[in-house]
Amino acid sequence: MSLIVVGSVAYDGVETPYGRVDRMLGGSCTYIALSASYFTKTRIVAVVGEDFDEADRDLLCERGIDLSGLETLPGKTFYWQGVYTNDMNDRTTLRTDLNVFAEFNPKLPEHYRNEPYLLLGNIQPTLQSSVRNQMNCLRFVGGDTMNYWIRDFRQDLLETLKGWDFLLINDSEARMLSGEVNLKRAARAILDMGPSTVVIKRGEYGAILFRRDAMFMVPGYLLEEVYDPTGAGDSFAGGFVGYMAERQLDLRDPNLDFRELGRAVIYGSVMGSFCCEKFGVERFRTLTRSEIDGRFQEFKAATDF
Amino acid sequence: MSLIVVGSVAYDGVETPYGRVDRMLGGSCTYIALSASYFTKTRIVAVVGEDFDEADRDLLCERGIDLSGLETLPGKTFYWQGVYTNDMNDRTTLRTDLNVFAEFNPKLPEHYRNEPYLLLGNIQPTLQSSVRNQMNCLRFVGGDTMNYWIRDFRQDLLETLKGWDFLLINDSEARMLSGEVNLKRAARAILDMGPSTVVIKRGEYGAILFRRDAMFMVPGYLLEEVYDPTGAGDSFAGGFVGYMAERQLDLRDPNLDFRELGRAVIYGSVMGSFCCEKFGVERFRTLTRSEIDGRFQEFKAATDF
């Protein structure tokens, strides 16, 4: 039983107060898959150009990620360039070259289609739906979105959300999607759109999971140095969904143990925090499951009362 | 065994997006004492003018607060006026009339001096020290401060802090006091100044308690409506210290149960959240201990994993 992840594989140029890297492996699918791979078998669907580096492919392979769904098209890989503010709570996009990503039309390999878990990274809502429709026997499906789709593809997004079990979204996007400033009301409005579970990510301030009958809150993990927050939200998603898949959680089961969802949020936070410790995906080169479980226990000790 | 609270008793003029009140009971001592009174016998030291309203005195009396140390001087009560931004994370002071507070020279009634617990609200550091020196057998002492004292009375403040067991401070003030942007480092620097326990308050994002060997984090309680955040930090302080006094915690005891400190932080958060539900001290007119314990259990349910 494995997790299918769909999204972008990209090259990123990133500048933070700690330095600058011109071209490094990135993209939502990359971070989600690397993060989830610590918990469950992960298979990706994405597109890259002919410039995609063998070493980057190797990194994903070494984490046991199935690349059968990674298509190579003539042209260049998606490129994004951005610069973070000094407190790293905000960033400015300097450049977005969609390149081959503009033609992304995800086709799932046959052996992906009977898998039970699907995570749809931040891509156009109709593409998210088309992937979902290629899956035969899902136990859960959910994903991420962003301000651009909320603003300019609202109807498509609302249609897509109807079929999701969970939505991961940051606080400003939750406000934009719901039209509510207050996060509790925003979450309630989003639950009315379809998903039974909404996770609102608040960057360094943690995250909150909402269901109709319960709520789980986690404060942010305090790092001494945040080198690069790129990918932290996607790493959160990978940890959250990876843990749910590892534990074979069924979000539609009325007897679901709510504390398991809390643990999934904690693993999400743990993975997001590790991601920030180095530039880009660097931290995933050395990260071990035992470090991950150690930080999970740290969260336990620092929040138990 | 009771708690002595020193600070300001004031009249506040407050404007928030929910409305405006021209003159209502306020001041650090008021909020701290009202909040702490749900946990322990509380005795205050403060000064008011001849305009201080009998009804306001009654409110404090009804909560069982000892007003023997509330001095009345010729003149008017301290007046503060401010307006909050739309998201209520910031406020602008429009007017500060110190009035009789300018002559505040706290003298402790004889029967206060052998009490074990002292909380020093946000007043001039040398006054805080003078109160501390009037106490005979303290089991713990701590307090609050603000940007003004940190910037313009730094040496006095550092001298005062040396004798404290705990400091309550908000995140921007912690950064200012320590010279460190990162909160973990900021806390470590402040622990080096004297207190064994530092609580960094982050407004709607919760709070973090630091000791040399352990840390406790709590996310903010999600309210659907924040009517007026005035006094929330002081109400937090009252709940935090009130619970420690109720449980007779000894911060100097190496065998102190750290989870008890976590509970004190949770009670602080609970009291801060109730304070915001109505204008000024209004919520304290009807609030009961059973509502407080109910919200404590809500925190438990929403953070347990």
Describe this structure as you would to a colleague.
Two copies of one chain form a homodimer. Chain A has 305 residues and is α/β, with parallel strands linked by helices. Chain A has a single domain (3-303), classed as Ribokinase (UDP-N-acetylmuramoyl-L-alanine:D-glutamate ligase, 3-Layer(aba) Sandwich). Chain A is 36% helix and 24% strand. Chain A contains eleven helices and 13 strands. The first copy, chain A, has a nine-stranded mixed beta sheet with strand order 5-4-1-8-9-10-11-12-13, sandwiched between helices. The first copy, chain A, has a four-stranded mixed beta sheet with strand order 3-2-6-7. In chain A, helix 1 packs parallel to helix 8 (232-246) and helix 6 (171-178) crosses helix 7 (183-191). At the A-B interface, helix 7, strand 13, helix 9 and helix 11 of A face helix 7, strand 13, helix 9 and helix 11 of B.
